[in-house]
Specification:
Strand order of the largest sheet: 1-4
Strand content: 25-35%
Number of domains: 1
Helix content: 10-25%
Shape: globular
Bound molecules: iron/sulfur cluster
Largest sheet: 2 strands, antiparallel
Oligomer: single chain
Number of strands: 4
CATH class: Alpha Beta
């Protein structure tokens, strides 16, 4: 089953850690002052996992996309 990365925008505090760790998957939305996912199904799993572990509010998760 495929899965994709999602950010809970209500929880995100805009610390940019995920963007710094994994810029191929996460980008910072200056208008919203929150991170957003730019490559939901791609990118290096290692850096995605690292971003998930580092996020201070644990708002990055995997979601089944099927
Ligand atoms: S690490 Fe978490 S709180 Fe920080 S910008 Fe990314 S999603 Fe938001």
């Amino acid at each position: 089953m495929a899965r994709r990365v999602v950010i809970d925008a209500d929880e995100c505090i805009g610390c940019e850690s995920c963007v710094e760790l994994c810029a191929e998957v996460f980008a910072f939305n200056e208008e919203e002052e929150k991170a957003e996912v730019i490559l939901p199904e791609g990118g290096s799993e290692d850096c995605i996992e690292e971003a998930m572990e580092t996020c201070p509010v644990d708002c990055i998760t995997w979601e089944d996309s099927d």
